[in-house]
Amino acid sequence: MLPLGVIDMNCELVDPEGLQNELKTLKSANVDGVMVDCWWGIVEGNAPQLYNWSGYKKLFQIVREHKLKLQVVMSFHKCGGNVGDDVHIPLPKWVTEIGQTNPDIYFTDREGRRNTECLTWGIDKERVLKGRTAVEAYFDYMRSFRVEFDEFFEAGIISEIEVGLGPCGELRYPSYPAEHGWKYPGIGEFQCYDKYLMKSLSKAAELRGHLFWAKCPNNAGSYNSAPYETRFFCDGGDYDSYYGRFFLNWYSRVLIDHGDRVLALANLAFEGTCISAKISGIHWWYKTASHAAELTAGFYNPSNRDGYAPIAAMLSKHGVGLNFTCVEMRTLDQNEDFPEALADPEGLVWQVLNAAWDACIPVASENALPCYDREGYNKILENAKPRHDPDGRHLSVFTYLRLSPALMERHNFIEFERFVKRMHGEAVK
């Protein structure tokens, strides 16, 4: 992954010479290509349907000169405020102006706090963006990109498009925002209090014949609660009641339907190109019955239900690959550092990869946190090519987070080169 700020707010390439040198070094280590975010807030920043791709043009030409491939992310979210974010790129100016008079275009929590990181899926089909729905705005942007960079598609230089589907580009609700005071390992909060999603919930309750279910749980704690402190998520809690199941089913269905709609249009825009969607690895509270942190993020995955199979089925319907984070994490480390979080990243990775492989879709991955040591690399290799898998299943792509001065330090880069060789199947002592 290229640095987040490689293109500035004026859509200009920030340091072409520095980038040339780094790409040369990466190529010498036999890296296949680089990933770059195409930020909605930069490209369509000033006015609807006025796209400026100039900096990306220069960037892509340099990548092509170094005979590297490109994975491009359609980034429909804001950058800034998340782990590792070192630049600030808001949503397009004209969108945030709409948000000043209609704040319901954003995901909203129980206290009415708005999250300006991305648009609520409640407006996917509402014409609130100067005559367009959110989904139409995403489609127009993707189509403009496809036309603009046709030669790079035709030459096979753009090998994959990852479609942003939510905060951090991930298909999830923004249930654990640091800016609202969340700290690890809090369970997070449901994010469906904007008027559009509340209308959808009312409709679902009406269809079910129980109008009094048209409400969100009032006993689900707050951002930094633990599951056992709440009546909703505790063992035997309301999450498993008739109402709880209805609500969680609706909440996760909204997430899957959003992915379904946007990916159907991505397939139209990028016909014939590999497309992927990113799913976040919410591994804390995985060892409890309710899996509270996953539930607030929209993954309906308590211990008595597989919440990732329906997502994999939706991706499979569109021939879209699944990109999953946190493959480098070790459950043992988590238990040592945060024993109270009852986390199990390895159990989660195992579940999600198998859900995807069972649906016969390609699985890509990336590390969630910076990684420079052999132990971390070994964990990635283990997940990339599970040693004793009788079917020989393995990851289709691994994208390393992130090109940085620290990675370029000699001792770190030597270790990284060794990792790349092993990823390519070379025997290394």
What does this structure look like?
By secondary structure, this protein is of the alpha/beta class. It has helices spanning 16-28, 40-43, 54-65, 93-101, 134-148, 150-154, 195-208, 242-269, 292-296, 309-317, 331-337, 345-358, 374-384, 405-408, 410-423, and strands spanning 33-39, 69-75, 106-108, 114-119, 158-163, 274-279, 321-324, 363-366, 397-399. The protein has a seven-stranded parallel sheet. Strands 3-4 form a two-stranded antiparallel sheet. Strand 8, helix 13 and strand 9 form a beta-alpha-beta unit. The longest helix has 28 residues, at 242-269. The protein is globular, with a radius of gyration of 21 Å.
Short description:
The chain has 429 residues and is an alpha/beta fold.
Which labels suit this protein?
15 helices; alpha/beta; 9 strands; 38% helix
Shape: globular
Rounded to the nearest angstrom, the radius of gyration is: 21 Å
Strand content: 5-15%
Biggest sheet: strands, sense, closure?
7 strands, parallel
Strand order of the biggest β-sheet = 1-2-5-6-7-8-9
Output the number of helix runs.
15
Q: Report the span from N to C terminus.
A: 27 Å
Helix content: 25-40%
Number of strands: 9
Q: What is the N-to-C succession of helices and strands?
A: HEHHEHEEHHEHHEHHEHHEHEHH
Summed over residues and divided by their number, the pLDDT gives a mean of 95
Q: What structural class do helix, strand and pairing data support?
A: alpha/beta
> Uncertain runs with pLDDT below 50, 5 residues or more?
none
